[in-house]
Amino acid sequence: MNYDFEKHEPLMSAFAEAFEEATGSALSAIKINPEGEPWEPDAMGHLNTPEGDWRLVFSIKKEAYPRDIKDALWDLHGHQSRTRNASDMVPIFLAEHISKGARDELRNRGVSFFDSSGTLFFKHRNWLVNIEKGKSATKGTLREVDVFKGSREKIIHTLLHMDRDWFHGQQVVELSQTSGATVSNLLQELERLGWVESQGEGRHRVRRLIRPKELLDAWAEAWAQRRQQISRWYFFCQNPKRLVEELSSNMSWNGRDQRHGLSVAFTGAIAANRLSPLLTHVDIAEIIVPTKAERVAEKLGLKPAEKGANVVLIERSGASELFQEYSDTERAWFASPFIQYLDLLNGRGRNAELAAQFREDILKV
């Protein structure tokens, strides 16, 4: 038994109050199984509705992540199947904290749930209650790790780059250029969230990314909220269609293997459109620079221009510096396709349209 019913019984009361407030129907005859006998559900009760008296069967946990849902539902459906008129029994999952991934899993399976944030989902017959609240504010509840902060973001980028291939932790350490401890901790968290699975033990343990779509969506959401140091500039270019090539000629690059000049990379629409052509022309070059923009602008011969700018310098390091690619055709470096995609999500022009096509054609996630 991993839940202290006496200490956390207020969760059941909070569920009853939230449900009655939302529907006008009251719970009654609630019976908690304090001994936690494996053959008994964690709790049972009755719900009095205009359509009749429905029985409720509960699974109660302290916190829940996607990997916890399968076992809980197995128990709930087992209790449900062992009762008469099983169609009148409603399985309900209660927890102080239910992660977003676990909430999505429960909704997809049509299983009712409630957590201490006040989030309530109830589905039975023609009833549907869906009240979404923020994360649980209960004191002492386990909080989800910000997997997109600092060096962790480099690991996320690496996992997406590796696609669904099996890998050892050391491979991620080397590719992400982060510490073994950071990699180990983050992989454990991603496994808890149900985005990564593992096989084996100890040094023979391997993992792989199993939900790249969900991971990329979550990264995109976090990416949109970040603050970035951006400056706008003008570069004289006789042929705007050769903006990348002419800028590159000023960057002191001596080919793919001799990057002795500026460590910068094109991103956004001007980079993505070359891999997945959609736009007739892109007249603004977005460039990632890991140092002060003024220093780069001076070397490139750029002039400050709030209006009429055709170059945007983005001061950024970390994950953006990984997996950059060199093009022999343009003789230029480009951010990885995943960074290009994220930088398309800025709401400018037709970038959203290009992003959707780019994700389907190039990222295939």
> What is the CATH topology of the largest domain?
Beta Polymerase, domain 2
Question: Order of helices and strands, N to C?
Answer: HHEEEHEHEEEHHHEEHEHEHEHEEEEHH
Q: Order of strands across the biggest sheet? A: 1-2-3-4-5-6-7
Poorly predicted ranges? 1-7, 136-143
Main sheet overview: 7 strands, mixed
Mean pLDDT across all residues, rounded?
85
Residues in β-strands, percent: 15-25%
How far apart, in Å, are the first and last alpha carbons?
Answer: 39 Å
Helix proportion of residues, in percent?
A: 25-40%
Rg, Å, rounded: 26 Å
Treating each run of at least 4 consecutive H or I residues as one helix, how many helices?
Answer: 13
* Principal-axis shape: elongated
Structure classification? alpha+beta
CATH architecture of the largest domain: 2-Layer Sandwich
Please write the CATH class name of the largest domain: Alpha Beta
Question: How many β strands by DSSP?
Answer: 16
Total domain count = 3
